[in-house]
Amino acid sequence: MSLSASPRLGPYTALALTALVAALASGRPELAALAVPFALFVAVALAGLAPPSIEGSLSLERDRVLEGESVRAIATLRGGAGLRVEVHLPVAGRVSARPESVVLWLPPDGRGEAEFELAVERWGVHPVGPPVVRARDRLGAFGIEGPLGEGRELRAYPGVGRLRRLVAPLRTRPVLGSQVSRERGEGIEFADLRPLMPGDRVRSINWRATSRRRVPYVNVQHPEQSADVVLFLDTFAEAEHAGEGTLDAAVQAAAALASAYLARRDRVGAVGFGAELRWLTPSAGTRQLYRIVDALLSSDARLSFAWRDVTHLPRGLLPPRALVLALSPLLDARGTGALLDLRARGYDLAVVEVSPLALTPADVAGAHRLPLRLWRLQRDALRARFEAVGVPVARWEHTRAPLELPFEEVIAYRRHARPAARV
Amino acid sequence: MAVALEAEPAGLVAGCAAAAVVLVSVALLTARTAPIPLALALLMGLYVLPEGERAVWAPLFGVGLLLCSELAYWSLESGVAQRVYGDVVTPRLVAVAGVAGASLPAAALVMLAAEADVGRSPALTAVAALALAGCAGLLFALVTARASGRSP
C-alpha cells in the first residue's frame, strides 16, 4: 500500500512559513499569530503515527449465480485501528456494485467489514475486485491506498428457458434413449408388419394380420434410441445494441437446448466457431450440462482476421450421425461457409438465425434505406442458399419472440421437406 | 466572513472578502482544492494589511481560518455518493477541534510575547530568524521521517 499526504499539508506549510517570515520582516506579530494554527496542524499531522498497513480479503456469498441475480460481496479489513477507511469495489462492465464505495471508521481492534451488493446483468465470467482501500488518519492528513487481497471471479450462468418440443435428429445411436428412431427394431412405437422370420418372438406376432392373411405376421417397432446433438455457436461476429446482442441470445438458446436434450438422455456437444475454435465432444449427463454452460461462459465475439478463409471444421470434431443445431446471426461469411461445408459432408443440420435485424436502426426513410434493403436482400439470398441444400433456416427475432418459435419452424420444415441426403 | 474589521478602506476589504468567497465557491463547485490556499492567503492579507485595531483578535481569526479551510477540504473529500457505516465524522471533528483549541492559546501567547517591552534589535531579529529556521528544520525532519516510513 502506498502512503500519501493530503493536498492541504503543502499549502498549510507554505502559508505558515510565509506568514512567519513576513511577521519577522514587517514586525507585525498578528501574522505570526495567524500562522500558528496552520503550523500546529502540520506539526501534529507529521508527529502522529503513520497509518498502519491494512490487510484483508474479499469474499463472495456465492461465486456462481444466474444472470439477473444479485450476490453479496464482503470485504473484511484487519489492522487499521482508528482509521477512517473508504473501500471501493471495482467490478467488470456488466456487473454493478451498490454502493460504489463504503466508508467506515475502524474500531480499536482494527477489524471491520464493508458489504456490497453485486447485480449481475449478463452471463459470463466477471472479475470482481480486489477492493481498493483508502485509509486516512484522524486529521485526514496522511493516508494509505492500495488493493486489499486478491480479486475473485463471479461466474454468471445464462437463464435457461424451457423448450417443450425439440428438433428430432434424423439419425440416432444404437443406445437406449428417448428419441423414436427411424430404424426398425424393438420398441414401443409401431412401425410396420412383416412376415414371421426365424428368431422372431411369438409375442410380436400380430394375430389380427395373421388371421386375415393366413400367414404369420409380426409387428415391427421403431426403437427408442438416443442421439448425438452438437450445438454450433457462430462467434465470428455479433450485433449488439443497448445491452442486447445476438451472442447473448445465442448463448441463452444454447444453454436451453443443452439442458433439454440432456434431459432426454441424448449426448450433447458444443462447438464455438469464431476467433478461436472451441469444442466439447458429445457426452450425456448433468455433468456435461455444467461443462457446456461453463464453455458457453467464455464465448465472446471478437473481430479476427487470423482465419480469413477457414470454413472447414476438422474432421473428427463432430460425430458422423450427429444433429448439428447452429445458432448464428449469419453475419460472417466464415461462419456460414463452415455450416454449408458441414451440410456438404452429410451432417443433419438446422440453422437458427439469431436475427440482427431488430438491432439495426429503424431508418426506413433516411440515407440508410437503400443499404439496409440491399443487406436484407443479401440475407434472404443466403437463407435461400441454405434451403436449396435442404437446411432449414429459422429466423429468431430474439427481442420479441420466444425461443420455441424458431424450433417449431424447423420442426415444421423437416416434417414437410425431406432434406437431401448429401450435397 | 464574520470578521469585522475597523479598517479604513472598507471597499477594498469588502472586495477582498468577496473574492475569497468566490474562490472557495469555485473550489467547491469544480471539486478542485487549488483555489482554497489562495482564499486563505487573501483573508490573511485582508486581516493584516490595513492598519488599525481589530474587533476580532488575530488568534481567533487564525483559528477561524483553519476551521473554514478544514471544512472546505472536508467537503471536497466527501463528495462521492457512498454508504457510511457508523459515525465517521465525530473522530475527525474532535481531532480538528483539538488542534484548533490548542492553537488558540499558542497564538495568544505569541501576541502576548509581542506586547513585551523589548526594543527591536538586530540580535533579537537574528534569534527570531534562527527560531524560524529551527521550525522549518523541525518540519523538514518530520516530513523526512514520515517519508522514510518511521514514526518520528
Structural features:
A: alpha+beta, Immunoglobulin-like, elongated, B: 152 residues, mainly alpha, 2 domains, 5 helices, globular
Spell out the blueprint of helices and strands.
The complex is a heterodimer of chains A (423) and B (152).
Chain A: E1 2-5, H1 9-26, H2 29-47, E2 55-60, E3 64-66, E4 70-78, E5 84-88, E6 95-98, E7 101-105, E8 111-120, E9 124-128, E10 132-136, E11 142-147, E12 152-157, E13 173-180, E14 189-195, H3 207-213, E15 217-222, E16 224-226, E17 228-235, E18 240-241, E19 244-245, H4 246-263, E20 267-274, E21 277-283, H5 286-297, E22 323-328, H6 333-344, E23 348-354, H7 369-388, E24 393-396, H8 404-416
Parallel strand pairs in A: 3-12, 17-20, 17-22, 22-23, 23-24
Antiparallel strand pairs in A: 1-11, 2-4, 4-8, 5-7, 5-10, 6-8, 9-12, 10-11, 13-16, 14-15, 18-19, 20-21
Helix pairs in contact in A: 1-2, 4-5
Chain B: H1 10-30, H2 35-48, H3 58-77, E1 83-85, H4 90-115, H5 122-147
Helix pairs in contact in B: 1-2, 2-3, 3-4
What do these coordinates show?
The complex is a heterodimer of chains A (423) and B (152). Chain A has a six-stranded mixed beta sheet with strand order 21-20-17-22-23-24, with helices on both faces. Chain A has a five-stranded antiparallel beta sheet with strand order 1-11-10-5-7, with no helix packed on it. Chain A has a four-stranded antiparallel beta sheet with strand order 2-4-8-6, with no helix packed on it. With 423 residues, chain A is of the alpha+beta class. Chain A folds into four domains: 2-47, no CATH class; 55-157, Immunoglobulin-like (Sandwich); 184-222, no CATH class; 226-416, Rossmann fold (3-Layer(aba) Sandwich), CATH 3.40.50. Helices cover 28% and strands 32% of the residues of chain A. Chain A contains eight helices and 24 strands. In chain A, a hairpin with a 5-residue loop joins strand 10 and strand 11. In chain A, helix 1 runs antiparallel to helix 2 and helix 4 (246-263) runs antiparallel to helix 5. Chain B starts with 9 loop residues before the first helix and ends in a 5-residue tail after the last helix. Chain B is mainly alpha-helical and 152 residues long. Chain B contains five helices and one strand, in the order H-H-H-E-H-H. Chain B is globular, with a radius of gyration of 19 Å. The mean pLDDT of chain B is 78. Chain B folds into two domains: 1-78 and 89-117, no CATH class; 119-152. The chains are: A alpha+beta (423), B mainly alpha (152). Chains A and B meet through helix 1, helix 2 and strand 7 of A and helix 2, helix 3, strand 1, helix 4 and helix 5 of B.
